[in-house]
């Protein structure tokens, strides 16, 4: 990996290069996605089955698109008991963490006859997209489904691409069953997003779609937003490690590589105040690459979006860390908790040398569906909040309204809204009685 000294020019170039990975930069795919969405919206299952045959080489139809109880039972027989035990441990951690996020309705009554409050209601139907392709994403199933269950969502509809035999990976089915998915459909890509957004004969329309996917899935979610809600438009995975001379170079190298193996567009960045550490990390990366199974993907990722950034001091290191706003941020410094207090932008923060990013992917409990491509500046991790909606509650007695009615009428008239003013005034018109 290249070692680059930070200055205004290098900072600008790096940020521009990282932004190339954003789904918003792939408008060339948008026309294809729009055509798929239009086709599924107009032709329903016919289009859905046709695209599944074209892209996934699977013969899916109305009779076999939905995963059956028998298929789930068979999946349990295929999954190792040790893996099942691990899935259940992870489920427990994720449930415990997200239960703490749960919100309740509240009401506040005053002596003046005013009741104000907030009613919290779960979303009724949620669609969860689970990728297939280069890897199996059991952890994604747990992370996307469990918060919805904790929130109280009644119907959780999962879609995931089948293999060429029309089957879904057994581990994915078991994870879905353990997490509490209501129903599972064998379909992926932009066509699956369109089906969830508009409904077909086989697949129900949902109110919100969550879950990561490839560029077609990301652009499809962007296109259907407004017809349904979405969690975010996820980009490629990324990690930034903030470290000083006290960091273990072997640990830093291993953690950078853990994200680079996701795909060629993944980004792995070290920001450090120590040139010695940067050089040692580079050496350790080369050693690890000799034995890692996905080294070809890792090399492309590091060549295009991997950086060892050398800062003059910790102030500059933290400044660029906040500017990049990484999905995953690890802090390996002399005083990581103090440095953490200065971090403004990050999806998930891992503190200390034994808090490696994969801990968050699988077992710790916080959600691993996180904002990418700098969107941690204004987005948060997936949470129970994503599966609820809030309604304001307002109740005034006549006596309470009487104290403010003239103010409201004046306010409305100042905006030129006489009907608004009249709606209040009519309640105090002496010429009118109930």
From TrEMBL:
> Can you tell me which residues bind Zn(2+)?
259, 262, 361, 420
Which pathway does it serve? Amino-acid biosynthesis; L-histidine biosynthesis; L-histidine from 5-phospho-alpha-D-ribose 1-diphosphate: step 9/9
Gene Ontology biological process terms in this record: L-histidine biosynthetic process
Any idea which GO molecular function terms this record carries?
histidinol dehydrogenase activity; NAD binding; zinc ion binding
Organism listed in the record: Herbinix luporum
Family, similarity comment? Belongs to the histidinol dehydrogenase family.
Record's superkingdom?
A: Bacteria
Report residues binding NAD(+). Answer: 129, 191, 214
Coiled-coil ranges per the record? 58-85
The EC number(s) attached to this protein equal: 1.1.1.23
Q: Which UniProt keywords apply?
A: Amino-acid biosynthesis, Coiled coil, Histidine biosynthesis, Metal-binding, NAD, Oxidoreductase, Zinc
The name of this protein is: Histidinol dehydrogenase
| UniProt entry tagged with the keyword S-adenosyl-L-methionine | no
- Return the Gene3D superfamilies for the record: 1.20.5.1300, Nitrogenase molybdenum iron protein domain
Q: Which residues participate in substrate binding?
A: 237, 259, 262, 328, 361, 415, 420
Cofactor binding summary note: Binds 1 zinc ion per subunit.
């Amino acid at each position: 990996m290249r070692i680059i000294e930070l200055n205004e020019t290098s900072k600008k170039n790096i940020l521009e290069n990282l932004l190339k990975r954003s789904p918003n930069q792939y408008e060339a795919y948008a026309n294809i996605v729009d055509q798929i969405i239009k086709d599924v919206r107009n032709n329903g299952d016919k289009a859905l089955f046709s695209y599944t045959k074209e892209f996934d080489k699977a013969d899916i139809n109305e009779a076999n698109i939905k995963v059956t109880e028998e298929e789930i039972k068979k999946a349990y027989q295929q999954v190792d008991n040790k893996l099942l035990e691990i899935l259940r441990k992870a489920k427990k951690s994720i449930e415990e963490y997200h239960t703490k996020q749960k919100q309740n309705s509240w009401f506040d009554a005053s002596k003046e006859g005013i009741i104000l409050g907030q009613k919290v209601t779960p979303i009724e139907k949620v669609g969860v997209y689970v990728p297939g392709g280069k890897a199996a994403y059991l952890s994604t199933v747990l992370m996307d489904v469990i918060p919805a269950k904790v929130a109280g969502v009644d119907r959780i509809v999962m879609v995931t691409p089948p293999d060429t035999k029309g089957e879904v990976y057994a581990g994915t089915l078991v994870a879905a069953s353990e997490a509490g998915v209501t129903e599972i459909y064998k379909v992926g890509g932009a066509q699956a997003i369109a089906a969830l957004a508009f409904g077909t004969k086989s697949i129900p329309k949902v109110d919100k779609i969550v879950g990561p996917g490839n560029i077609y899935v990301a652009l499809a979610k962007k296109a259907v937003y407004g017809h349904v809600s979405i969690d975010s438009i996820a980009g490629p995975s990324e990690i930034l490690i903030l470290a000083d001379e006290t960091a273990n170079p072997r640990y830093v190298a291993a953690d950078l590589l853990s994200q680079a193996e996701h795909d060629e567009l993944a980004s792995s960045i070290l920001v450090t105040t120590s040139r010695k550490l940067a050089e040692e990390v580079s050496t350790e990366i080369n050693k690890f690459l000799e034995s890692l199974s996905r080294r070809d993907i890792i090399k492309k990722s590091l060549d295009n979006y991997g950086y060892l950034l050398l800062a003059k001091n910790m102030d500059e290191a933290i400044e660029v860390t906040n500017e990049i706003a990484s999905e995953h941020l690890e802090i390996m410094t002399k005083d990581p908790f103090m440095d953490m207090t200065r971090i403004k932008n990050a999806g998930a923060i891992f503190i200390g040398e034994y808090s490696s990013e994969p801990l968050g992917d699988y077992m710790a409990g916080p959600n691993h569906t996180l904002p990418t491509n700098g969107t941690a500046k204004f987005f948060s991790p997936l949470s129970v909040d994503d599966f609820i909606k809030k309604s304001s509650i307002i109740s005034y007695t006549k006596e309470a309204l009487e104290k403010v009615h003239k103010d409201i009428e004046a306010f409305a008239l100042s905006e030129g809204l006489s009907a608004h003013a009249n709606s209040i005034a009519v309640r105090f018109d002496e010429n009118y009685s109930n």
